[in-house]
Amino acid sequence: MKITKQLQFTIVGLAALAGVSTLALDFSAQRSESDGRVVNTSGLVRGGAQRWVKFEVEGEKRDQISDAVEANLEGLLNGSDELNLPAAPAGAYRDKMLEVQEEWAVLEAAVAKFRGGNSTPQQLVQVSEDFFELTNEAVKLAETTAVRNVTQQRLANGAVLLLNLSVLGFIAYILKRASDVLQGSVSTMAGTSSTIAETVEKQEKIIQEQTSSVKTTTSSMEELGSNTLQTATQAQASARDAQNALSVALEGSETVEKTTAAMQSLKDQVGDIAKQIMQLSEQTAQIESISKLVSDVADQTNMLSLNAAVEAARAGEQGKGFAVVAGEIRKLADQSGRSAEKIGTLIADIQSSINSTIMVTDEGTKTAATSLALADETSSAFANIRAAMEGISQTNEKMAATAKLQAVTVQQSVSSMNAINLGAQEASSSTQQVKESTSNLSELSKELSLTV
Predict the structure, then answer these.
(1) Three-point CA angle 93, 132, 34, nearest 5°
(2) Whole-prediction pTM value?
(3) 3-state secondary structure of 98
């Protein structure tokens, strides 16, 4: 550890020790005052009880004296801010004061008995003497405690004095060491002053060479800074173009996604149409079967009407009315047959159209699926393009930021080189001052060696 640090720590320790000593002395003074008040108050209890009994024997009642004695007793035992008394600590004195308090109760009872005429003055005085002996012992204990505290404080003060003397001796030792080190430093300083002068001359030559090199480097750095600024500008322009291309790619990707969704919807609609056409084909087949059934019914009805006409002709006059009905039924059967034939023709045409529609919807479904697959491939291609453009944009932004940072760094380097150049010039001009200071230092070391 350095001597200066040792001195500083020693001074701080001495100050702390002085503060502790002051606090200890203050505590000792307060403790002595407190012990003195305890002794005095114990004496007041002893003397007050005697005065009270004396007045009682003479026929005078002085209850204020007994109140004062009781207050002093309470303060000595439990402490009192009014009397500035501390509470009695556990020990012989406190035990004795508890006995005094019990004897005081006995003395109060004796006074009350005397006032009632139930005891003689000699009896009251005897109780008072017992109380006096007990309080006298308590006073002696208080005095013994005070003397013991004073003795302990004297020992503590002696220890503090020894500690102070030790610290002062240590300070004297540190000062001697500092003097020895200072004398050695003076001798070393006198010997190195000439070496410093020679080193300064060498540094002056080196500084001149550095000044020339710094000028050349500064010119090169300025050219590099100009080129770097151009590179940064071009990188920023490339980054803007890449950002625009990325925006276009994003728009194309969104359009392809919309197209894919539309193609998917179209495919679903074509599928729904195919399902409806299949249902229509099934319903047409059912109509065809019904039409055949109607045609068969019409043929059977026509046969029945012919049979009815034959039977009506056999019946003669009685079957004429039935023959008319049979004729009407035949007409209806003929109409039903022709209608069934027309329905069959229409159903055949509808079935042909349905078959053509089924083929067309099937082709449309296949075309929609193909278009949807192409749209998915296009969407993936646009996603790849977008990812590539994002990478290019980020790379260009990083290049622009790097180029800009390089330009700033080059400018800072140029500024630093200029500062170095100025510093070298100042250092060159300062070497003369250093030479003069070295000579002054040599003279000062000689004077200091004579002084220390």
Answers:
(1) 40
(2) 0.36
(3) helix
